[in-house]
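Worked example 2:
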Amino acid sequence: MTVAISLLAQATQAQLVNTAFPLTTATATLDFPVRATNILTDIPVSANEITDPVTIVFQHSASVAADEVEAEYDPDTNTITVSGNEAIAGTITKAQVTSAINALPEFTAQVGAGAALDPAGDFTLGGSPPGNATLTESAIDIEADLPGLSFNQVDIVLQTGAATGAAYDTSNKRLTITYVAGTDDIADIASAIDATAEFSVTSTSGGTTITSALDAQVEGNTNFTGGGVLLDHVVFELQGSLGAETFNFQAGTSNLHIAAAINQVSDAYGVTAEVAA
């Protein structure tokens, strides 16, 4: 589609017909740090910021002091290697493994019920250390219930509290989600979002993953995802009092991006653009 828009006369305003821009809904994704809730039966481990899956490998190592544990993280392979050195199987405890993982700044581990006294496995030479574990990712995809611009640039924040819920502040364009750390899982947070009048959850991953206080750092924003998009390729020439400019946009380009492109060179031809509500 090719059009020409002239603002050389006294008129100061023109419109690209809105039927070319079907409305889309604003969307956002909450990416949670990866975690596992059952390392060595009852040790929950969470990444502090990492959202890609992390593998934990357990092994015997003679380079570690007797009956001690060390942990090392390789960011290139996203792998935690936990090395222990036992003379007698069962000497190393889960608390030692927890402490070693906690020494890594990228991760947080907690001692589960009875873990301080329970053996961590067989870290003897030729023994069978615990099996590998994986910290898995969790995410929630959110969309506004109404299409258009109204829910663009909405901040989405999480906080811990005594009860689960979510509330949208229209004035400040902020969706605040409250969860009970250590009790609620990702599905509980999704349900709280679904209970609002303004937003819905379109998909989740890792829904049964238990939350932690670390998840209060998770945030999102709808940015400029809501609005209208072109149905077809369009080329148009915009003539203003200072000159003319030709614009070329592909199908799927939003009206917000078109307005931004016009405004980026507005000084060259004396025209500015904005998207009507």
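The chain has a mean pLDDT of 88. The chain has four helices and 17 strands.
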